[in-house]
Amino acid sequence: MNESEHKSLDFIRQRVSDDVANGKNDGRVHTRFPPEPNGYLHIGHAKSICLNFGLAEEFGGKCNLRFDDTNPEKEDTEFVDSIREDIRWLGFEWDAEFFASDYFEKLYLWAIELIKQGKAYVCDQTVEEVREYRGGWDKPGKNSPYRDRTVEENLDLFSRMKNGEFADGEKTLRAKIDMNSDNMNLRDPAMYRIRHATHHRTGDQWCIYPNYDWAHGQSDSIEGITHSVCTLEFEQHRPLYDWYIGQLEVHHPQQIEFAKLVISNTMMSKRKLTELVSGGFVEGWDDPRMPTISGFRRRGFTPESIRSFAKRVGITKHNSTTDIALLNLCIREHLNRVAPRVTGVLDPLKVVIENYPEDEFEMRVTGINPEDENAGTREVPFGRELYIERSDFMEDAPKKFFRLTVGGEVRLRNAFFLKCNEVVKDEKGEIVELRCTYDPETSGGKAPDGRKVKGTIHWISAKHAIDAEVRLYDVMFENENPADVPDGKDWKDLINPNALVVMQNAKVEPILADANAGDSFQFVRNGYFCVDSKDSQPEKLVFNRTVTLKDAWSKQQKKGGKGS
Ligand code: ATP
Ligand code: MG
To answer: Measuring CA to CA, which residue among 70, 78, 74, 67 is closest to residue 45?
Structure first.
């Protein structure tokens, strides 16, 4: 690699490339993605997945999937399955799969080794006492009264902890490091706690469980991981990571921290997402409003778009917020290239063309995707009765309204000029039909006499259209930074009530009757939509709006207006 190539890399890739060049770990690169199976993966995890699997791909290395399952109460095989599915959907495959629980025995034996070296002890302090004795940033800690137990006593108590002789919280095993360390994580951190709980894999075999810091680095070491990438909040844990490995004198992976992904108008912590699901605020983990990978998938996002997003966000050492507009841009760019163009009328208004013969139809030829020259064309029927979008008509239109008005003329996309002559209303005064005429001379979209129309609107033959439900999704939180909850409010009060708007009576082209779950389309002028993978039925199609054609949100938000 030459100097300019090296410079173009992010700081982690620079570091890995230096290690390879220097023959560290014999030039091996081995990473891992270590999710805790206590929820579904979110888009922040996608950033970590793209980084870990990407490093392995780029440096001819390996990447493991390791389930970090050391909290028996919160973990579940449903989550394990969903995590595997989501990683594969993103386009990655792991070299080996492990569970931290595979190492419970090994970790236990290593803990005994540390006890024998006089570097770990059984402590009887309560949570409150531990907190009090730990001190603070400006206050030195005090040694626990149990710190000087003999090795024999510690070995005896630790094996009795393991054998279930004590209740939850009664004792912990702690590393004996330094109660005056500037780094709070080194003030005799807990290695084991007692939890009489059934684990999703080890059942009731264990009632002591290793803490994150004790399990993580040792698992990395066992697997021969070379670069253990994690998010910035673990920077202060690195000395502890290194301390444990140093005491055991085993293979020493390098922990490297990077900034986690934070997206505007989005909340990503698993604890909060769990609350949204269990509180019924959303339909489930794969609700298209959720920032989960399965939510994005169901909403119509593609793996390509998420990988492209992760790449553009990049890897840095400084926390920042990424505008959700960037994510929308990535999916829009991909779907613009691949999604067939069709017509969907979300809020239909009937048009009757009085000078078009009854029961006659003609086929209009239209391109399937102007961005893809191989996409070809298809025919759509045109006839006397059409549906147009209700919002494309105004009875009392302002001057700048270039769509349809009474007495005004508009171009029907790929068809003719249409003039509205009369409005039909029901007894409530609501417009139910427009009586119109068309100009058969304008088939090419131009009038032979040179008269102009300013607007072009989409339409669909009423006779041929099929019914659909269309779900319009928008950002989950109205606030750019939903973590910043105003006084007296709960974070759930910030949920955008319009994050889902359902259009029950939409009309779509008959060609969509053959669409499969998950297929994506551009509904011209309306955005990108996909067939919902759960609720869509041949007799009642359901579409999800993946993204609008333009991003109204971030700009309008800044002006203080409402998103659309
Ligand atoms: P959360 O804070 O959302 O609950 P977590 O970090 O507890 O997430 P884990 O299952 O422990 O979830 O995460 C697995 C991996 O994904 C970790 O290496 C973690 O650093 C990484 N990760 C989690 N959230 C993000 C994020 N927002 N951006 C980048 N990486 C992330
Ligand atoms: Mg975690």
So the answer is: 67
